[in-house]
Amino acid sequence: MAAANEQQAPALRAGLIGLGMMGRHHARVLRETAGVELVAVADAYGDPHRAAGTLPLLATVEELLREGIDVAVCAVPTGLHEEVGLALAEAGVHTLVEKPIAASVAAGERLVEAFESRGLVGAVGHIERYNPALQSLRRRLAAGDLGRVFQIATRRQGPFPARIADVGVIKDLGTHDIDLCAWLAQSVYESVDARTTFQSGREHEDMVAATGQLANGIITSHLVNWLSPMKERVTVVTGEKGAFVADTLTADLTLYENGTVSTEWDSVANFRGVSEGNVTRLAIPKPEPLRIEHEAFRDAVLAARAGRPAAGAVGGVSMREGLQTLCVAEAMIVSAREGRSVRPGAGS
Length: 348
Description:
It holds the Pfam family GFO_IDH_MocA. InterPro entries: Gfo/Idh/MocA-like_OxRdtase_N, Gfo/Idh/MocA_Oxidoreductases, GFO_IDH_MocA-like_dom, NAD(P)-bd_dom_sf. Residues 135-244 form the GFO/IDH/MocA-like oxidoreductase domain. Residues 13-126 form the Gfo/Idh/MocA-like oxidoreductase N-terminal domain. Keywords: NAD. The chain is of the alpha/beta class. The chain has two domains: 2-127 and 290-318, Rossmann fold, CATH 3.40.50; 129-287 and 327-338, 2-Layer Sandwich (Dihydrodipicolinate Reductase, domain 2), CATH 3.30.360. It has ten helices and 14 strands. The chain has an eight-stranded mixed beta sheet with strand order 8-9-10-7-11-12-13-14. Strands 3-2-1-4-5-6 form a six-stranded parallel beta sheet, sandwiched between helices.
């Protein structure tokens, strides 16, 4: 009954600041999200993808706020997240900020404090949590389909994106994998060890190979780069009953089961360690991740307005969670620079 009442309430007045590659998609999905009305957009550098449509194109967050918005999406470059986010918090606007939460841990801490102290919904756009393959994988892990989980390995590789200029591959792409691993495992990073390269003539790293240890004992590995001619987005979770492989480009989820039939070829059996079982590509619904992310944000805002917990917003990423992810990313950068293992938040 509460849900029905919320649907009859006036639509949330939404503003969008940042009309680049991600901003244009946010504009489209905001227009398609029930219970939300996109009323204003802003970007100091114009509207290259014509995302504004019939709305006037504003230049600043101050102009955006004068439109009387309830919620906002912040899709400006990472270095501007703090400035724009603090202005939105000061005005009492619930905000979804693109990942990473900020350019530095200190800036992220200020954003967390600004939103939490005012009782506002502050979310971070770690969109991979909403990928259908990973959503299904999370549920299956929670149900015990793999038994005890041993390892989570990710590969996120592809060509250099010209849109990124202010951070390296760890804070841009790598934060996806840091967040999704902690979320799938329901644990936090205790330590990381990383190595990076700088091959494209920029001040920031463009390739990283990193390992991690989670508090619950799961180990992780991450290969992330902007130097590969092929695009790859793969997460492999290995446990005592087999392995899941999630391809988030296609939203496919495949289960590789440990078998009960012994392998008679001794050299192969010795090499594999476990017997080979069934391989099944699982049939799962595939809604658009960005749409699910916006619906989760909307539901969290409606819940906050009603003074109750945000029920059903599975996978929602709070600013505090986004800050934890950024702490791990900065620990990786320190580890690579100093050639040592680093505990997130300690010496980073």
